[in-house]
From TrEMBL:
InterPro entries from the UniProt entry: MetI-like, MetI-like_sf, ModB_ABC
PROSITE patterns xrefs: ABC_TM1
The protein, known as: Molybdenum transport system permease
PANTHER family on file: MOLYBDENUM TRANSPORT SYSTEM PERMEASE (PTHR30183:SF8), MOLYBDENUM TRANSPORT SYSTEM PERMEASE PROTEIN MODB (PTHR30183)
Protein location: Cell inner membrane; Cell membrane
Organism: Shewanella algicola
Entry membrane topology: Multi-pass membrane protein
Family as reported in the entry's similarity comment: Belongs to the binding-protein-dependent transport system permease family. CysTW subfamily.
Domain ABC transmembrane type-1: 6-210
Amino acid sequence: MDWQALLLSVKLSSFTVLLLIPLAIIIGRGLAYFQFRGKSWLEALILVPLVLPPTVIGYYLLVGLGNQSFIGGLAEQLFGQQLVFNFSGLVIASIIVNIPFAVQPIQRAYETIPIDIRDAAACCGMSRMRIFLKVELPMVWPGVLTALVLCFSHVLGEFGVVLMLGGNIAGETKTISIAIYDSVQAFDFDSAGMMSLVLLLFAVSALALTTSMSRRLGGLNATQR
């Protein structure tokens, strides 16, 4: 069992979720409430990571974040380190790859909120920020929770993009999925099986817990209405 790789994967998942979920709430809310030209194209762009092979996404990220690119060169000038083969680059890549897993559940949750509820809250004198915090967020919480668990679990098991952009650097970019691959390559099937079982149990437990909590929160919201 490669504990260092597991801890790095948990760290990567945590950073990704903390940065992505607030962004997904803003994007999901905007897509649910507003109609604008090019909305279908934006939604399609968000869903692209679901259909493209991870190696293709990894290649474009490698090119887009490399030292020869504008973003990669700017990051090296400002922070003195490159984005490729670096943990910070993996965080950026994980955010991009997991956007559909975060935005879709939150957008669908916002679409279930009746317009009358927001209008009634506004008629009661509530500000937009208070409506967002006191009315909308509690009602879309099941969607936010689903997005959080999906993103965390997906990042934990991500392989293709991590390998393409980060390589296999112990303590820096070697995640649990890379460790499993290395163990199989070395014919260490006991270690590979143990790490695979950990990911499997976590995924099943997380999804079961999310489903249960979403039902409870959904029922609570329905009661409050």
